Structures are given as C-alpha cells and as structure tokens.
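Retro notes - structure team

What went well: the batch runner handled both jobs without manual restarts.
What didn't: labels got mixed up in the shared folder, which is why I'm recording both outputs here explicitly, each with its sequence directly above its tokens.

Job 1
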Amino acid sequence: MITNLKQFTEFIRSNATGGSILIVCVVISLIIANTSLSTDFNNLLQLHLGVESGSINLQYTTLEWINDGLMAVFFLLVGLEIKDEVLNGELSDIHSATLPVFAAMGGMLIPAGIYALINSNSPTINGWGIPMATDIAFVVAIISIIKSRVPQSLQVFIKALAIVDDLGAIFVIAIFYSAGINITYLLLALAMFALQLLFNRFNVRYLAAYLIPGLFMWYFIHHTGIHATVAGVLTALAIPHNVKLGISPLKKIIHLLENPVNFLIVPLFALANSNINITESLSGGHIVNPLSAGILFGLMLGKPIGITLFSWLAVKLKLSKLAHDVSWAQVWGIGQLAGIGFTMSIFMALLSFADAGLQNQAKFTILVTSLFAAVLGYVLLIRKVKI
C-alpha cells in the first residue's frame, strides 16, 4: 500500500510539472505563430533530417521526426504504464478497475457518437476519434493544484480512467487510422515483436534486447501503413515485469522515460503542433462548422455525459462501486476535466486529416475547448457539491 501510494505521488508530481511545461510551450508556440517568427519556425519544422540510400529511407521532416519518432517513445511509456497498472496497480484488482474502465468507455463512445452525428454528412467525418482522447498531463497538473480539496480516491480514479482512455486511443489509431497495409513490412515488424517475446519467454532482462528490435520494428511499421507509434506499445508489451531476480525491467525503463517524455518529448510535440494563427482561425467561418462543433460538443458535453452515465450504470448494475468519499457531482467534474483533449486530440487530428487547413481548424478548436474544459472542471471540483 505504501509503495503504491509513493508511486502514485511520484506520478502526480512528474505529470504536474510536465503539464506546466506543456502550457508554457503552447503559449510560446502561439506567440511564434502569430508574429513574424512564424515563417522561420515553419521552415524549421519542414527541414529534412536523416539519411536516404538504396532501400533505406530514414529522411523525414523535423515535424515528422517529432510526431512519428519521438511520439513512439511517448506511446512506449503509455504502454508500459498500462501494463504496470494491469499487473500491479490500480487496474490489477477487478473490483477497483471496473469503474474507471466503464467510465473511460463512456468517455470515448459518447464523444465519438456526438462528433459523428454532427459530421454525418460532412467530409470531416473521419475526425470522430478526436474528442475521444484525454490529455493526462494537463488533467494531472490541475488535479495536483487542487489535490488538498479532492479525495485521493478521486485522484486515483482519474489516473486509472486516463490510462484506460489511452489504451482505447491506441486501439483506435491501430485499427481505424492506418493506411493500406504493406504485408512484407508487416511480417518483418511481427518478426521483431516475436523476437522480443522470445527474449521475454527466456527471462532476458537486458533492455537493449527489447529496445534494439523495437527500433527496427518502428522502421518496419512506419512503412506498413500502420502508424509507427504502435511499435512503442508492442515493445512495452514485450518488456518483462518479473521482479523475482531483482529490479523489474519494466519499472526501470518507466523511471528512465518519465522525465524525458514529460519534460521534453510531449512539450516538443506541443511546441511543434500548437503553432496556430489565431487571426486566420477566427476568420472564414472556422468556428461555426461541423468539425469545430463536433470537437466542442464532443469534449465539453460528450466527455462528462459519457463518463458520468457509464459510471452510474456500472454502479446501479452492481458491476462497480463508487468510493464512499466521492460524490456524483465530483464524477461529473472529473468528466468535465477529461474534456481536456490537447496532446492526444491533436495527434488524432493529424491522423484524421491530410489537409493543413482542417488540421489547424481542429487544433484551434481543441485548444479553446481544452481551456474551457479545464476552467469548468476546476470550478466544479473545488465546489464540493454533494449529489
């Protein structure tokens, strides 16, 4: 119990600080996008880096290296945290896990349904995955500010909910946001994954035995048509959790990755993808259209409705139990806070649309909606209304 509490405290502290850095990077990116620096910054993002020779193609733009390369490391950490929670954390006990699982399901299905309903006869229907996501760094940053005013059980609930939400996002990306599959590269990627599983089976504890095949798997998956970040998740599944022979390799790599991901990779993603020209976004009807409405209502209404409704049904059907110190008003507040989509929502927007105009429109709406969700969620949670 003490160990779990210590891990949870470290998780809160790391993500809270990372969330603060994330906010600073968003502000910097917006300033750059709306000043004379925007041209030079966009040129930097489009600069080609890497090597290309013969059958090897490793030359991509700076933006692609961030979104496809560094974000694979982000998904590696997400996968490791999910595995750790399932094996030895808040999701390891079926009684404790059911409520956030049901809540996350509602928090994904209802927003996606609202978006799809609004965009049913629109070319932007492919963005239905955008309002499904929750940005755990921003959410935890806000929870850390008000943690003395909300019960710890509620803090654990939002952490578990966000982790299940991330798992859902991974499945959506892998299944629905992938291009045509190249079978040759897919087989090569699966061979790398099989090699990792073989190392796991024989209790190989050297991280290099998993990370090196993981790099090759990233390259192969990048050329299959499936988004390359899936390689991070598959590598996470293969890394052993066994602690009988000493320190768990899974725990070790989580601690190695937490700071680089929270303090470097996610802020870099925000810096590269928040460069939104506000004047252009406010003109030309960008804020009154199915795409913006779908994201706005999906995150602002779909999230709290889905999370609260599915949680209530799970409790009423006796599939789960609500902690005695948590009210339904607080569950709604958590649902409202989960409307902060930011990192994952922007990532989904980039996968949904090839058109830069639609991407910027979606990013602007995500930014504004996430701000509203953060403020409203904060206000609701500090009021301590008992329902």
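Job 2
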Amino acid sequence: MKAPTISDVRDAAKRIDNHVTRTPLRLSHHLSEIAGREVRLKMETMQDTGAFKLRGATNALLNLPEDLRVRGVVTMSSGNHGRGLAFASKKLGIPCTVYMSELVPSVKVEAIRALGADVVIAGPSQETAEVAVLEHVECDGVTYVHAFDQPDIIAGQGTLGLEILEDMPDTASVLIPLSGGGLFAGVAMAMKSLNPNIHTVGITMENGPAMIDSLKAGHPVPVNEVKSLADALGGTIGLQNELSFDMTKRYIDETALVSEDEIAGAMRTLFLKDQVVAEGGGAVGVAALLSGRLDLPDGPVAIIISGCNVEMTKFMEIVSAPPKA
C-alpha cells in the first residue's frame, strides 16, 4: 500500500463534504487560562456518530467500486470505527459486519447493532477479533475496511487537520489521541505538509500503549489489552502494520502517557468547565495538557476531542466524583 499524501487528504475532503460534519474549533477559556495561551478544542464529538471515525469510514466506502459494495464490508473495531462504518454503510446501502472484543463497552456494541450492522463478539482482544475478520474475508470475499492502517482511512481522518488550519492558521501545536495511528498519521501528515513547524503530540493511556511501545521498540509489538477509561485507544497496531506506524514515526514530535486518574480528571474538567461530554479516549489530549508534562512551543494549541461515546451512568460517576489529591 502507498502512504496517502496531502493531495489525497484534499480529495477526501471534497469527497466526504456532504456526508460528515465540519466540526467547530472551539475556544476553551478555562484551558487557555491554565496554559497561558490560546487553546481550542476540535469538537469531533459533534459528528453524527459521536466520533471522528466517520470521516475515514465514509471516504473508504465512497471509494469502493460498486461490485465490491454489493458484497459488503467487514471490520474489527473497539467501537467508534465500527459505528462510523455501520452508519456510512447504512447510508450507502452496503452490508456491514463488525467484529469486536469482549472489552468493548456495551453502549458501543448496541449503537452499532442499532444501525443495522451484524456484530460478532470474537474473544478477549482486538487481536482475536482481527483473526476472525481475516477468516471472514477469505471465506466470503467481502472487503476489509481497516480501522486505521489503510490509505483511504488515513486520508479521511486527515481532513480534520485541514479544518484546524483553516480555522486557526497560526496553530503551533496539535494534541492528538494515539492508538493505531490512523488519526495521528492523517492529521499530522496533513498539517505538517502545510506547516512543517507545527508541533505534533501523540497521547495515549498508560494501560496498553500499543503505538508508543512500538515506537520505543522501533517496530510493531504486541500489547497486553486491559480495561481503561480510554477504551477507544485500546488494541494492537498490528504486527504486520503497513502504513500508520511508519507515518506516525515520521511525523510525531512528542508522546505522552496519561493515567486513568488523569483521564477521569480531564473528562471532569471538560464537562464542568467547557460543557463537553467526552469519552476517555477523547479526553487524553486535555489530560496531557493538564499534567504539565508537555514541552510545547509558544503559540496556539489545538486539542482533538475525538469522541463522546461513553456509557452515561459511568460518565456521571466520573464527573461527579471529587478530584483525587
């Protein structure tokens, strides 16, 4: 596979224009005061599916030839990609099957089923789910739409980066949730293609940081999947990763790990100070900023709030709990 370019991102932006929401880049007065600089939140929580994944999924399906659309598509997902693919598939009349692990919250599983997709719970990890997907593809001849390691997916996610620069041309730093690397690769490539000086930060949770462990090792490595508030960032990057690892390695300037307590604190801050409902994976950029551990250059900061698909009873427990000392 060939890595996507800024031209592919621009083409994707035109292709998906009437299918996804152009989300606002909203000023956070509270975070700006804490950081001593302008901080804006890229509100992917406002997508129809509550997460950025709709961009890449829609771009991939719109690029799919008609004869392959009829056969259908299949994927594995920790939740948001599956929901995005199911939503876009329903809109375009394409059969869709989503394989998921037992770690995926039920709220995400049921949301995908509600869109008419077939859902298969395949074992305790994303790795076991992917094995099942590959068997499905081999037996039935359907198209595998990968959650992150595919050119159309990466280019679709990159459209988010174009929007950030359109709305805040003087962006100095961008804080990006980091999991399989599709979001990071697309956004960082797009933004650095237009301004190489932009400082890119990839953030994930301490519990199973697959991409950061792989970057440290210099190659994709397995991950021990455990429960986390940032469930959307869980799972392996794939030992046969073809694109997102190399692109992330090329475009990343800084990485950050955040604890479960820091993620909960960020979710609480976003809700109480900015009236934003964010899932754990969507709040890791704010968690990293609040930690004080980032080494950012001077200038405005954009933080991608990547999703809001969280079980609300759990969310209310988190935001109503007193901050830990």
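One thing worth noting from job 2: The two ends are 48 Å apart (CA to CA).
We'll revisit the folder naming next retro.
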